[in-house]
Design brief:
By secondary structure, the protein is of the alpha/beta class. The protein is 35% helix and 27% strand. The structure holds adenosine-5'-diphosphate and magnesium ion (MG).
Length: 260
């Protein structure tokens, strides 16, 4: 049994007066893939963004409850949110390399933002290591100074993963990272996720049940009782058990495609 990397207690998330997430309690195990599933609008993305303090970047947004990374309170007053994001990286639905930057500079951008030295050979080493880790090195090694946006969608997404990995985070959060990709690029990202879980704790939001079944060890099902009501965690368990015999009838109808 792996240790828990993230421990979430009584988490509520709000946008101004609107409550998007209600009372989530969850343990996310280290060096496994945890999938978040559930119908649109049930707060999966919101909850994911509370895990690295991105939620509060939105005007009027706030969080109640506690989140600990290996026992450390991520919302402690003394902690800088940028430091939290160095340990808990994020990959978004649409690949978003910085358009004005080369492939190399994209990989190093997080380090530069955090004032971590990456000049010359040290930078070269990080670029190669991060691109190899993202299974992209062979495809781009001869064009490192070309713009990142010149790559295909699937390559751009792997570049974004390399950019996140360059900071050597403990946790990678991925919000529907394959939903803008073709099936072959999706497969490449899925294979990559299975490799990355040797070294990182991964949390992925996906609408694709087959994908959740293929790549995750744990699955968390979120739902909402009605539009305008906050989303909540229905149940979480081993992916195999969740897909073969879930405890809750709503989980069963969602995974069998009856709603969502
Ligand atoms: N920036 C925002 N401002 C206000 N409400 C938002 C914002 N982002 C999401 N919401 C609302 O929060 C709820 C949960 O949204 P979201 O987390 O995106 O759900 P999911 O990712 O499961 O589709 C929805 O009702 C959505 O409209
Ligand atoms: Mg979402």
């Amino acid at each position: 049994m792996n240790e828990n990397e993230l421990t979430i207690r009584n988490l509520n998330a709000y946008y101004g007066g609107f409550q998007a997430i209600s009372n989530v309690n969850m343990n996310i195990p280290a060096k496994e893939v945890t999938a978040f599933i559930g119908p649109s609008g049930c707060g999966k993305s919101t909850f994911l963004r509370t895990l690295n303090r991105m939620h509060e970047e939105i005007e009027g947004a706030r969080v109640e409850g506690s989140i600990e990374l290996e026992g450390q309170d991520l919302y402690a007053h003394a902690l800088n949110p940028a430091a939290v994001r160095r340990h808990i990286g994020m990959v978004f639905q649409h690949p978003n390399p910085f358009p004005s930057m080369s492939i190399r500079d994209n990989v190093l951008s997080g380090l530069r933002f955090n004032s971590i030295s990456c000049k010359g050979e040290a930078g070269d080493d990080i670029v190669e290591w991060a691109l190899r880790s993202a299974n992209l090195w062979d495809e781009v090694k001869d064009r490192l100074n070309k713009p990142g946006v010149g790559l295909s969608g699937g390559q751009q997404q792997r570049l974004c993963i390399a950019r996140a990995i360059a900071l050597k985070p403990e946790v990678l959060l991925m919000d529907e990272p394959c939903s803008a990709l073709d099936p072959i690029s999706t497969r490449a990202i899925e294979d990559l996720i299975l490799e990355l879980k040797q070294s990182y704790t991964i949390v992925i939001v996906t609408h694709n049940m087959q994908q959740a079944a293929r790549i995750s060890q744990k699955t968390a099902f979120f739902n909402l009782t009605a539009v305008g009501e906050p989303g909540h965690l229905v149940e979480m368990g081993d992916t195999e058990a969740m897909f073969s015999h879930p405890n809750m009838p709503q989980t069963k109808s969602y995974i069998s495609g009856q709603f969502g």
